[in-house]
Amino acid sequence: MKILVATVGGNPAPILRAWRAVTPDLTVFICSMDDLDTGHKGSYTQVEDTRAPAESLSGILALTPQDYAITLVPADDLTAAYRIVKALLAQLHTDYPEAVIQTDYTGGTKSMSACLVLASLERDYVQLSVVTGARNDLIKVVQGTESLRLVNLGEVQVQREMEAMLQHWRTFSYEAAEAGLNALLDGLNMDDLKRRVTYGRLISRAFQLWDRFQHQDALKVLSIYDRVMTPTLRAYQIDLKELTHTTPSPKLRFLQLWDLWLNAERRAAQRRYDDAIGRCYRLVEASGQWVLSFYQVNTAAVNPEPLGPTICGQLAIDMAAGPYKFGLVQTWQLAALLHDGPLATAVQDYFGVLQNLLAIRNHSLCAHGFDPISGPEWQLWDEWLHEHFLPALQQEAQALGIKRLPQQFPRSIEDVSH
After folding, report:
1. How many Cβ atoms from other residues are within 10 Å of residue 92's Cβ?
2. Is the pLDDT confidence value at 408 over 70?
3. Is the pTM of this model over 0.90?
4. How far is CA 224 from CA 105, 202, 204, 228, in A?
5. Is the N-terminal amide bond of 306 cis, ω within 30° of 0?
């Protein structure tokens, strides 16, 4: 069984051409309602004209009442018309599950045509068509040159779904983007579109791996496009290469710290505040360890003897004992005694604030408590980090000759595409 669903406007010629090309068993005419403001009749009069029935579409095509139906929609209300047409297509598929349903959007108002296209795009059992031909102007095709052209809905649907999957980038959800794009590749045989979907999938995978701190694996995926990278993507690749150096250095440790901070920002953007603050806690702790590494102090095994009796006394540790494992607070207490740089100063000047922030972290289930961290609590951490800690961390990096800071991940694939 074949069903034709066509929008009806003022010119019956395109619909007659579409009908004769399809020769449907059932025709559903989508027609405009009466205009209550002007009193003009809707386009349903093209289908059933009581004054000249032989000149109407039903008369010209010799349709009986069982051969066709009329569905009325508002002429210029896209939302309402879309809802009606979407329900119509679903009902036709339910009533005639084996039928071939073809929609033609040639006639009718712009809103009617748009709603039919949109509704058709959402139904994989619908074939879309349009009547076209030679033109002398932008108004209509030359009569007698009309022909029915099928629209490749598969390609349009893949493009729509690809764009929908890439919207996950807006929330840094690269894993969801990759999974969706990977599903689209199954059976896709349109070369250009397949290349674009593959590019989106692989770049999503690279950032997904990077987001998990799997830097080496991310670099391997990103390097697939080494010869065709945009300048923006190249900058990310450079950052990733620096993060994958195997030789420890003060610069590498700083880049790892900054990478951790950017990761925390992404978790906060997703409103995963417990995860964000967990990373920030590690950032503050690891930054102290980084500062102490300038003095060959390893907080995992602090030998008190080289520190001397004065510092050991201030830290309340026994010189004859050890080695000691220092946590975050002890790490920064020692850093304040050894280091006169901006980072130690910032922590010391706002140590009371930091202790309050640590109390927020400690009541998290990810730390020592059972309560989730709220948005306002995250804001307290974020403000302290931005106002005091991060500027000082950058100053420490600049003192080591580090001038360029890695950037946050992109929120749109357009930022890293040609």
Report:
1. 20
2. yes
3. no
4. 43, 9, 13, 9
5. no
